[in-house]
Amino acid sequence: MRFNELGVGLKLELKLEGSDEKNGDSVFVSEFEWAENDRIIYIAAPIKGGKIYPVSVGEELAIVFIKSDNLYEFKGKVIGREVRHNISLLRVETLSEIRKIQRRDFFRFDCSIPISYRVVEKDRINILQRRFIKSYTRDISGGGVCIRLKERIETGELLECELFLNDFNKVSFLGRVVRLTEYDSKNDVYKYEIGVKFEKIEERDRERIIGYIFQEQRRLIKKG
């Protein structure tokens, strides 16, 4: 697919590549305006809270869109900011070709959905005596989840988890804690986040997670 095949007004999701991944403000909605050529395109400057968000020149972007009911992605870099006909625009240099996102790609999706977990003892004898602790995700992917925590769990721990994609769709898995982040916040009860990599999960359950991400991503982009 060529960039001049994208229609004016096509909804785009922008991910600021250089931003803090824990910052939900790093994802915005924009619109395609026109292609100068296959290397230079113009998109609408994203708006946040009723104001134009100041995307800096030099900022690199991951740009996702839907066309013909499929999900696509390409990379770009902001090389200029302009105002034409009272519309604030970003001039973007394309850094990659447009590629179709396959359902099996481990695309991370920011979402807060219920998850329950418990630490698996090394000998696994006492696991049934430990109650599940309820919490919420920060994001999910086909390769793992990020979980918000009130208590600290060290990297290397093995967790048994139940992820609730909706009221009728529960996914169970074992995962290994591969990352721990602590926040210095007095107002948020969730002071920790852990990255959990799937260690044992049924392939059909992984497909359910990927399918959920795919459907939600399409819904949000269409909603704009």
From TrEMBL:
Gene3D superfamilies: predicted glycosyltransferase like domains. The keyword 4Fe-4S does not apply. Residues 102-215 form the PilZ domain. Keywords: Cell projection, Cilium, Flagellum. Residues 8-93 form the Type III secretion system flagellar brake protein YcgR PilZN domain. GO terms for molecular function: cyclic-di-GMP binding. The keyword Membrane does not apply. This is C-di-GMP-binding flagellar brake protein YcgR. Pfam families: PilZ, PilZNR. It comes from the Bacteria. Signal peptide: none annotated.
